[in-house]
UniProtKB/TrEMBL annotation:
Recorded family membership: Belongs to the KdsA family.
Catalytic activity: D-arabinose 5-phosphate + phosphoenolpyruvate + H2O = 3-deoxy-alpha-D-manno-2-octulosonate-8-phosphate + phosphate
Name of this protein: 3-deoxy-8-phosphooctulonate synthase
Stored PANTHER family: PHOSPHO-2-DEHYDRO-3-DEOXYHEPTONATE ALDOLASE (PTHR21057)
EC number(s) reported in the record: 2.5.1.55
SUPFAM superfamilies with a match to the protein in the record: Aldolase
Class of the enzyme per the UniProt entry, highest EC level: transferase
Listed InterPro entries: Aldolase_TIM, DAHP1/KDSA, KDO8P_synthase
Transferase as UniProt keyword: yes
Amino acid sequence: MDLNAIPKLKNLESNNFFLLAGPCAIEGEDMALRIAEKVIAITDKLSIPYIFKGSFKKANRSRIDSFTGIGDEKALKILKKVSETFNVPTVTDIHEISDAEMAAAYVDVLQIPAFLVRQTDLVVAAANTGKVVNLKKGQFMSPESMKHAVTKVLDCKNQQVMITDRGTMFGYQDMIVDFRGIPTMKQFAPTVLDVTHSLQQPNQTSGVTGGRPDMIETIARAGIATGVDGLFMETHFDPANAKSDGANMLHLDYLEKVLTNLTAIRQTINNLD
């Protein structure tokens, strides 16, 4: 994959990691623009190539009364407005075959959720749009098995594909990151580490997923040291009141310090190479 294929992606000359970051879900226009503006200011300061992330809908929820979105077209239009306002690429996840063509009209990168990455028809539908496809590694899959998901995209004559590791199930209610998988997956496609979902604590009796946001920088530091090409991170100015995944998001106030530290580590790694 060539990162230059992602429209509006800046700071590519920096040899820094790239970042996919934003709220878990699009809750409204004001919140999306507020988060994007803050993250863009930080990433431009640190010369980090940046893609704004926001789910236009949340299909995988613990309970039937959990927040799923503000309306598909409404949320997608907000993603497009973020892109046009700040001249930044955007990514959103899709869950059904029909989502692929619809979302592709508004965003630059289509993301396949971890639970769905083995769904051939969904992966093929994303690949056939010609957009960059981000494949989340299934929590139940080995790093080696992601080769087959990548091959499905390549077989559709779409070379623009990347992998994101979001941890592996450890028992019923915890996730771990096996950093041995990073160099393995990098053989197949550029590899991103999701440093927020990999700290989830799913299947809580309350029906609300837990998390360990205090460990976000720890996991991210290890990922940079291991050689990930990019990081995926969900952030919000009020995680406690976010409508989705607030328990494992990084507070927006902490983002600059975390990214500053990670950029310093990346620079050190670059010097070693």
